[in-house]
Amino acid sequence: MNRVIVEGKPNGEFNASSKARIDCLTILENEGYQVLFVPSKYGVQTAKIRKPLQWLTYKKNLISWMHSLDAMNPGDRIIIQYPLLNTTSGFSRFLVAAAKKGIQTVALIHDVDSLRFTKDNSSSRVVERVQFEDRELLPKFSTVISHNKKMSSYLKKIGCNNLIEIEAFDYLTEGATPEHILSNGVTIAGNLSPEKAAYLKMLASINCRWRLYGAGYREMEANNIVYSGKLPPDILPLRMKGAFGLVWDGDSIDGCKGSFGNYLRYNNPHKLSLYIASGLPVIVWDESAEADFVIKNRIGFTINTLSEIPAIMDGLSESEYSEMLDRVNKVRKKVTKGYFLRQALGYLDING
Hints:
The chain is an alpha/beta fold. 37% of the residues lie in helices and 17% in strands.
């Protein structure tokens, strides 16, 4: 039997989760995967008694995971969205026990925290923990669904062998998207905080119209920047205006730099799928992992510096842009219907 494990609160409620995780769960259920609920919780936040009670909470979480094996039989497959939402000390014991029982465990990766968190954006304790967890846990899964070839290369170095690449994340949505025209400028959506997107403070110097959507933005006086606030993820692709969607992180307009920028070398940003779901062509860093996907599908441009954007847009004819919109729409039909995860599941059936 094929199952997808969902972590939740002990009272039976699912934990609040991201659009990406919810969409993956929906697709898996549509493909016949049964939900197996594992009660768990994050921990205790009271400072005085935090450490001992958190340890007890994590131990209880592991017990819940171990009990879930009672409902499984040899030959079953379980998909676990990774990283875990709730910390579980000793989770490798669950993976080892599942393997001994003949159960196939599949990690569906959303983030590789040992790549995402570094000494530049996190404490040494956090960095040490995520480095240990990824190296300890991921190689123990029967199969790992990676983002792309570059992420897979890293995962092989830490001991993962049976890898499948999802190529791009899906973004489930229904409804008509706005009309996109070349004069609408460049859209930036997502986390707009200075910690993640410090480059925003330099946009005023680039001769381009910028449309911003998301949380954390510290508004600046600039005639070429329009901030449109934060919208729910299900509504955003149906309201987002622009000519292109930009995938960029870090503190520089000349390449994606810093910890967040470097992470783009490995991961599939969910905002890329958001733009495609909205019907927007995309602009990405030419050293990002998803540059290959953009080039392969001819759905946008890869650049080294944001300063290249005005010339690119000035040199693009209306007919060329219209043809690009058509190509984006072909990929949009896949992204909004769960094509890429279903494709990965097909590879899993063949190689599993």
